[in-house]
Every structure is written in structure tokens, then in C-alpha cells.
Design goal:
Strands 13-17-14-16-15-20 form a six-stranded mixed beta barrel. Helices cover 28% and strands 17% of the residues. The two termini are 46 Å apart. The longest helix is centred in the middle third of the chain and has 15 residues. It is of the alpha/beta class. Strand 15 and strand 16 form a beta hairpin.
């Protein structure tokens, strides 16, 4: 999230360039969909959640993954707000929900459209908002009525029409609705469609641009932190021939001539899909360099490991993730052993290769001050220690001015530049030929796989299975099983539960293979989302067998 990493482009420019991946493992399908639909990516200030009368948490577990949101959710609950949660798994944030809807994985878009149809049938839509702020609103409403069948939605999603009607009863009671949308649901081939369908629901109810409500996903109102030193070859100039989600598959192609790999700030052997294909590629590379804090699963394949400093061991500037502040990250400890911060590592490499360090001869703090200056942030870096920067134009109530920077000047839901929300999504099994869909989510023990090496923060390979299905399969708590498909297999310990629906298995993401044999991405495939070059690897069909 910091800017210090941009120093590496000075080395690669002097080196003569390199090939890069394109796409993203995180949430580009959602971000690109929101940008094209609303014109910009922003949301109400999170403290506004506390004023809502109904909170809808959709495909998100903020109790584990967005803890700064939870105090506002709890405050709203103490003030009498109701809670609705939507997730294939009854997660830790679902406790005490007034209503819980449990769709099959990957069918969130279908469910959102079904709710849109019910809203129209019950005349709960905000006609004034639609008329004033939604482009082609009449066409959109007509297409919902023409194309969306509640019985078909129930069949696809596994959510009954009765439960959908109960959800709409809550919507009838109040328009002060905060809709919190998660990232996992957009890591399917129809990820953009799902986000756009949920966003359509928010638009239909008129939740955008007002206090006490809102569509909450991410906020990118803060100004970009610009790198102050131009390079003739910047990130956009390097060839990008391999999608980040299909490295294992793409690098096996004969026309892809990659012989060496530099890996930093990443642990692809755990976090990228199709681990087995990655192993085939890595075994044929001539040279691998990894810069990391720990001897990760990826570092074990390296010819050279460059110890990296942790975020508390170097100065940096951070652009907020999900909030609008620019923050100074000061060094509070000296780097341990031979570990080096990004900028210092780049300096040492340039010296070793005989390259002119150029602007990197400045100190880290001097470079960061120049970043602030060129980014239009008129603050000395030391001022940010106690007072993060909030730019003057920050809009606490997103879109309160009614300005949407789209071609029409309104919210766009039917644009040709967006996924068609009326196209059918995946069937309920995710991948045909397998009885279960494997669902993965983030635990409270780490961020992705970073801390799995730390004692006490290891991700336990516990497989949650619906208790009735466990009974049918002759499984008990503590039994050892192997989850498998055509791509690979992992070994897990069974936990029976009523929190997960039939046809779905659940594992927390992040386990390191060497400890558990349970790196979940031995099972996933790296497809592409319908927008934004995102990675679709949550539609994962599996089977299981008992290990005697």
C-alpha cells in the first residue's frame, strides 16, 4: 500500500526492463464495475453506518476482515438497528441477525435481481431517485420485470421466495439502509455482474448520496501518491503477457519465453491459484529471486532470498485502504539482521550492478517529502505522525452533490461497458461433475498468508461440512479427509456444522503447505472475471474421501 516500492522501477529501467503480469488477485472486478457505474469509487464515511436503521452485510465478515467497521455496526445495533446477513456460510458477523439468507456460492447477482423484482412488485422503489439519478431507469425497471422470475431465482440461489419476501419486509420498514458488500463474491467468472446487481439494488432503493444509508465497498477519494522522479520506463511501459491468476498455465506455453523470476511482496505458492501448475513452471526456471520476511512456500523455490524489512522497520507513506486518509508510516525499529527496506534494497542492487542511483541517493525521508509535494499535499512529513492527511474535498456523504462522472452524468446500470446483469450466472454446483463447491474465506489470524509462519497464528486446516451431509458420508468431528479434484488434493480435519448449507464445504485461506498439506490453491483454477482483469478462482468444485 506504500510508495517506497516504486523505487524498484529505477533498477529495472537501468537493467533494461522486465516482463510483468497483468490483472489482480484482489477486487478489480468490483472496482471497475463501480467506477463505470457510478463514475468514481467512493462511499460514505464508515461512522455513518452507526446511524442506519438496517444494516445489510452481503458476502462479508467484518468481524474478522474489517474490524474498524464493527464498532459502528455494534453502535447501530445498540440503537435498535436491525441486521440482515447474506452469505453461503453463517459467519462470525452473522450472529444475532434478524434475517439470514444463504445463497449458493456465485449466485449473489441472481439473488440481488430477485430482491429487485420483489421491491418493484411491492412498490418499494425510490421513484424520484430513479428518475433523477439513474440513466435509462424505465428500461432497467422494464427489464427486471421481464427477465427476472422469482421461482427461477429461488431454484438457482437456494434461497426461498418466502425468505426473499421476509428480507423485503425489513426494507419496507426503513429506507435508512447501510449495505456492506464484500470482495469474495466478485472472485467468480460473473464477479462484475454480481457487484452490479447488488449495486442496482442500492440504486433502486435510493441508498446513494444520502446520510444514514449507503453502498459500502471501498473508498478511493484520497489523492494518488505520485512518485516524484520520472523514469523513461515506468510500470506501464513493461510488457504484460501473463495474467497474474494464470501464471502456472501461461508460462507453460511454448511461446512464453520466461527464464527467470523476481518475486517480491507476494507468496504465489500459497496465494495464487493452481499451485500444482506453478510448481511445474518453477521447476523449469533457470533462476528465481525472492524478497520476503519469512522462508515462505515460495522462498523455498528461490536460488537467492533477499531478506525484506517489515513495515515497522522503514519509513513510508500509505494511501488508505477503505478510508480516505494519507498516513505516514514511521520506522520504529531497526531492520533485523540482513533485512533491507525496499528503497535500500534497490540502492544496494544498483550499486552492485554499477548503475547510477540517481534520485535514490537522497534519504528515504527526503524522497517521501518530495512525494507529498508533487502529490499536492502541503504538509511536512512529521506533521502526519499525529494527524493523518484528509484532503479538503473529501465527501463524507458520497455523491451527495448528485454528480456521477459517467457519460450520461447519471448512475449507469445498462451500459455496454458493464456486464449484462441479465445473463445467467454459474449453476449452483460451481463446477459440473463435483458434488460440493469449496468456499474459502479469511480468518482472524492473518492477512492472506503473511503471518501463517508465526507461532499461534497458523491457519488450521479445518473443513466445515453441513452436519446432515457429514452424517450421510459417515463422517464425525476430527476425522481426517482428503478434498480433491482434477487439479490436486488437500488434507483436512472435519468439523460438522449447521452454519454451512448443503453442497458447500469451507476452509479458511492461508495455510502453508509444508506444515499441513492443505494449501487450498492446490484445488483452484485461475480463470478471468467478466470485467477488470480480475482472477476468478472461487468457483471450485471438489469431492472428498475419508482417510483411514
Amino acid at each position: 500500500m506504500g510508495v517506497a516500492r516504486h523505487s524498484q522501477w529505477h533498477f529495472w529501467e537501468a537493467f533494461g526492463g522486465c516482463s510483468l503480469t497483468y490483472g489482480d488477485l484482489c477486487d478489480p472486478a468490483a472496482l471497475e464495475t463501480i467506477r463505470r457505474s457510478l463514475g468514481s469509487i467512493k462511499m460514505n464515511a464508515i461512522n455513518e453506518i452507526a446511524n442506519a436503521r438496517l444494516i445489510v452485510i452481503w458476502g462479508k465478515n467484518p468481524f474478522f476482515t474489517h474490524p474498524q467497521v464493527m464498532p459502528h455496526v455494534l453502535k447501530a445495533r445498540l440503537n435498535g438497528a436491525k441486521l440482515a446477513t447474506i452469505d453461503p456460510r453463517r459467519n462470525e458477523s452473522s450472529r444475532g441477525s434478524d434475517i439470514f439468507l444463504q445463497p449458493f456460492p456465485g449466485t449473489d447477482g441472481d439473488l440481488a435481481l430477485g430482491l429487485c423484482r420483489l421491491i418493484l412488485d411491492r412498490n418499494l422503489e425510490d421513484e424520484g431517485f430513479l428518475r433523477q439519478h439513474v440513466h435509462d431507469a424505465e428500461d432497467f425497471v422494464g427489464l427486471i420485470k421481464k427477465n427476472v422470475s422469482l421461482d427461477q431465482v429461488a431454484a438457482r440461489t437456494g434461497v426461498s421466495v418466502f425468505d426473499m419476501e421476509e428480507f423485503c419486509t425489513l426494507l419496507k420498514e426503513t429506507r435508512e439502509v447501510a449495505l456492506l458488500c464484500g470482495s469474495g463474491l466478485q472472485r467468480y467468472p460473473n464477479g462484475g455482474r454480481s457487484i452490479l446487481s447488488i449495486l442496482s439494488l442500492a440504486a433502486l432503493l435510493g441508498l446513494i448520496g444520502h446520510i444514514k444509508c449507503g453502498f459500502y465497498y471501498n473508498d478511493k477519494q484520497s489523492p494518488e501518491l505520485l512518485w516524484p522522479f520520472p523514469v523513461s520506463l515506468n510500470e506501464e511501459d513493461f510488457p504484460k503477457t501473463v495474467h497474474v491468476g494464470s501464471i502456472g498455465k501461461d508460462l507453460q506455453k511454448k511461446e512464453t519465453r520466461v527464464r527467470a523470476m523476481w518475486i517480491t511482496r507476494s507468496n504465489p505458492m500459497v496465494s495464487h491459484p493452481d499451485r500444482n501448475a506453478l510448481e511445474k513452471v518453477f521447476s523449469k526456471l533457470d533462476f528465481i529471486v525472492v524478497s520476503d520476511l519469512y522462508p515462505t512456500e515460495t522462498a523455498k523455490w528461490a536460488d537467492v532470498v533477499l531478506p525484506a524489512a517489515s513495515f515497522v522497520e522503514y519509513d513510508d507513506l500509505i494511501r488508505g485502504y477503505g478510508h480516505p486518509y494519507i498516513q505516514y508510516q514511521p520506522r520504529i525499529l531497526e531492520p533485523i539482521g540482513e533485512s533491507l527496506p525496499d528503497m535500500e534494497l534497490t540502492r544496494r542492487l544498483m550499486e552492485a550492478f554499477g548503475f547510477d542511483p540517481g534520485p535514490l541517493s537522497l534519504s528515504d525521508r527526503d524522497i517521501l517529502q518530495k512525494v507529498l509535494d508533487i502529490s499536492g499535499i502541503p504538509r511536512p512529513i512529521d506533521d502526519l505522525l499525529c494527524d493523518p492527511y484528509l484532503f479538503p474535498e473529501y465527501d463524507e456523504v458520497a455523491f451527495s452533490d448528485g454528480v456521477f462522472k459517467t457519460p450520461s452524468g447519471k448512475i449507469e446500470l445498462l451500459s455496454r461497458d458493464l456486464p449484462n446483469i441479465f445473463e445467467a450466472g454459474p449453476d449452483k454446483t460451481g463446477e459440473k461433475g463435483y458434488p460440493w463447491t469449496l468456499l474459502s474465506s479469511h480468518s482472524d489470524k492473518g492477512i492472506n498468508s503473511q503471518f501463517s509462519f508465526t507461532p499461534g497464528l497458523e491457519i488450521d486446516p479445518v473443513l466445515s461440512i453441513n452436519e446432515e451431509e457429514a452424517k450421510d458420508a459417515g463422517l464425525e468431528d476430527g476425522d481426517r479427509v482428503e478434498v480433491w479434484n482434477e487439479r490436486g488434493n488437500v488434507r483436512c480435519t472435519v468439523k460438522k456444522t449447521d452454519s454451512i448449507r448443503p453442497g458447500v464445504l469451507h476452509l479458511f485461506f492461508g495455510a502453508w503447505d509444508v506444515e499441513t498439506g492443505s494449501t487450498i490453491n492446490r484445488l483452484t483454477a485461475g480463470g478471468m472475471t467478466d470485467i477488470g482483469w480480475g482472477t476468478a478462482f472461487h468457483n471450485c468444485g471438489v469431492n472428498l474421501r475419508h482417510l483411514s
